Amino acid sequence: MTDGESMTSDDGFSVELLTASAEQLADKLGIEYVTLEPDRVVGTMPVAGNRQPYGLLHGGANAALAETLGSVAAALGAGAGRVAVGLELSCTHHRAVTEGRVTGVATPVHRGRSTATYEIAITDEQDRRTCTARLTCVLRDRPPR
C-alpha cells in the first residue's frame, strides 16, 4: 500500500490483513502493492532475488506475483463474510526479464457469486508485456475465527 493508506474490502475486512508481510510469500519475493481496489490491483516485484539459474526472472516468481495480485483483488470484491481461495492459475511467459522490476496489473474477467476470474498482465520497466496470467478463485463463506 502506498502512503500508509488503510483500505477495507466490501465487508470492512482490512486490506492490511490481506497484505500483511509477516510469513507471506509476497514479502519474501519483495512484492509491493501500488493500487488496491476490487477492479484493479497493481503490484511490483524486483527481478533481483527472484531469478532462475540462467539469470532470468523465474517463471514461478511471475506465477506467485500473479496469484498474489489476483487473490487480493478477488478477496476485496468477495462480499461481506466471504473469502477468495485460488482454484486455477495459468501463465504464459512472453519475454525474458533479467533486471529491474516487473509490474503486475490484475483486472476482473468475471466476478460472480461463487467464482471470480482475473487477468494479470505483467510488464517490464519498458512497459513490454512479459507474462499474461489468468487466475480463478472460488468465493466461500469466511470460516469463523
Automatic annotation (TrEMBL):
Residue ranges occupied by any Thioesterase domain in the UniProt entry: 54-131
Keywords in alphabetical order: Hydrolase
GO molecular function term, any single one: 1,4-dihydroxy-2-naphthoyl-CoA thioesterase activity
Highest rank taxon of the organism: Bacteria
Keyword Hydrolase among UniProt keywords: yes
GO CC term (a single one): cytosol
Homology family: Belongs to the thioesterase PaaI family.
UniProt-listed PANTHER family: 1,4-DIHYDROXY-2-NAPHTHOYL-COA THIOESTERASE 1
Identification of the protein by name: Uncharacterized protein (TIGR00369 family)
Source organism of the structure: Saccharopolyspora hordei
